[in-house]
Amino acid sequence: MKGFVFHGPGQASWQDVPDPAVTEPTDAVVQVDAVTICGTDLHILKGDVPEVPPGTVLGHEAVGEIVDVGGEVRGVRPGDRVLVSCITSCGRCRFCRDGSYGQCRGGGGWILGHLVDGTQAEYVRVPHADLSVHPLPGAVRGADAVLFADVFPTAYEVGVLNGRVRPGDTVAVVGAGPVGLAAIATARLLSPERVIAVDLAPARLEAAHRLGADAVADVHEAPGQLVADLTDGLGADVVVEAVGLPESFELCTRMVRPGGHVANIGVHGKPAALHLEDLWSRNVTITTGLVDTYSVPALLRMAAAGRLPTGQLVTHTFPLHRMEEAYEIFSRAAETGALKVVLGEEQHAEVVPAA
């Protein structure tokens, strides 16, 4: 089969790789119908995630069909259409019993495309399949469903729920990439008074408006002042960091009100200053987190009911064999207008321009 293989910083290729097979009785093998590229994959290619060994098939999000299962798998069987979660869960360790699947110590956590071969291939082996794949509602298309492997649960759990968004809140989202946009969409489910999006790309700010942001601000045009003007000088109740840069994190801490929450989603590759000289007396809560994906079943139900605007996030589609081109388009998002790219043999061969 073919897969997208990481060879070291700046080097990867779509090439022949061995077919995966069931190696443990809790495994499943999935034929990939749709897969997407994550910003974390770009971090791996840049060399920011050194524990990923050369020779690894990248990717941790997919939709597909079960083609084989181990003898201890009970929840799915060959022929089932499933979502492959970005997080693998053993279901037995202390963290899994608490629902903190991202911290699994039983051979799970974020392993696909990280510590074992991932989903950007024609087939993928999924360990601990009973808790690591989700049967898909028939009403949800593969190109939409793949967004619930990582993007939507990350935004909802690490941003909205960790940030404790409540009805009537002012929520500021710094970074209107795919996860930031999903944070805007899922924050709206909790009836905030307003959602403010901050980014430097006009196309992403337009997308933020479409997904429910009440106000948008260019990062170079005093977004903190806009937040202050809209909140009588108090600041935002919840600020979601969805970029992963030191300056974006520090901007978030300046925009939050006393007693407010900063929910960090972004993947940080460099240290960020924590200005405790300003924050210590303001009762600010700062949370970080790796997604656990416990919200996936509920999010899938909301998607099937038409409550989440998944289609608006997918700007480009490709067949699987154009993986290298898809990476190139996604890595130049500021120029190409790419939000999420989806690949699969059932996808259109032509690039769909951003709205």
TrEMBL record:
Keywords, sorted A to Z: Metal-binding, Oxidoreductase, Zinc
Organism: Streptomyces bangladeshensis
Pfam families membership: ADH_N, ADH_zinc_N
PROSITE patterns (UniProt xref): ADH_ZINC
Region listing for Disordered, in residue ranges: 1-20
Family according to the record: Belongs to the zinc-containing alcohol dehydrogenase family.
All copies of domain Enoyl reductase (ER), residue ranges: 8-343
Lineage: Bacteria, Bacillati, Actinomycetota, Actinomycetes, Kitasatosporales
Protein name in the entry: Zinc-dependent alcohol dehydrogenase family protein
UniProt cofactor(s): Zn(2+)
